[in-house]
Structure of Glutathione S-transferase family protein:
Amino acid sequence: MGLLVDGKWQDQWYDTGESNGAFVREGAQFRNWITADGAPGPSGEGGFKAEEGRYHLYVSLACPWAHRTLIFRQLKGLESLISISVVHPDMLENGWAFGRDMAGTTGDTLFGHDYLHQLYTRDTPQYSGRVTVPLLWDKERERIVSNESSEIIRMLNSAFDDLTGNRLDLYPTDLRETIDRLNRRIYEEVNNGVYRAGFATTQRAYEEAVVALFGALDWLELHLADHRYLAGERITEADWRLFTTLVRFDAVYVGHFKCNLRRIADYTHLSHYLRELYQWPGVSVTVDMQHIKRHYYYSHGQINPTRVIPVGPLFDLSAPHDRGRLESL
Ligand SMILES: N[C@@H](CCC(=O)N[C@@H](CS)C(=O)NCC(=O)O)C(=O)O
């Protein structure tokens, strides 16, 4: 675990000293957009036109943010247009690395680098900041397009539609306000909430995060009792953003991050909903529990110094669900 300072790698854990023990996530720095015609997107510069074979995604199968992008790549039929490299789940003194000694890893299939930070300095030799996945790379311009998952999924949602003919819209205009509102609370209290609990270094920061997290899960449980999906009758981006946290919850966040007031298995509607999303065509292949458990329990030596990885819990995401009782479009 570390970061780049003026292009040089430094091995250090998150600094919570400035924030009363609270974990504060650093904003992503590469914010360009792929668009259908190469025009600039909402941020960054233009010149990143949607083209087959031009872009490459660097992901970890363990990371919930990278997982979003893998799900969109599947649902939008982009597997043959956008290639991927999968890092090793162990994020140790050199950060994300390209070891191949575990099933599911690929190495750096573009350049054969050893470490992800080499991609960041390949783009910006003096880069200072965290080295995170997902990372979207442009093979033509040899540049980073984006390292912000919430924006990468928006690009994948629409930029390639004319090339693929896939018109599935997970961010439809009429639901955007609702989706944005859901995302705001779910990001803060759930997606990032589990990290704020797990990486807190004071009792108070931890408890604040956990109370908000379970407040949000209780709210979602109630909402899902009579809505099939978060924004109503259609599955949207908001559901997939929640899914990547829910699917890791009982296996990792309950134990490793001490988010243990309840498990997802203890929530009736959330657990049926989780199984429906897991069973959605194309989604289960993006879920790798070995990488997920290994990454958290093995990489975070400050939290789990023995690096022993729990065997359980036992659960079956392919068991039947009851969501068909609710209306869907
Ligand atoms: N804002 C980023 C966050 C990505 C992120 O924090 N990824 C984690 C893995 S789950 C990471 O690479 N962390 C390395 C670090 O913080 O040094 C996004 O959503 O794309």
Observations:
- The two ends are 44 Å apart (CA to CA).
- The longest strand covers residues 55-59.
- Residues 74 and 282 are 6 Å apart (CA to CA).
- The chain has two domains: 2-164, 173-282+314-325.
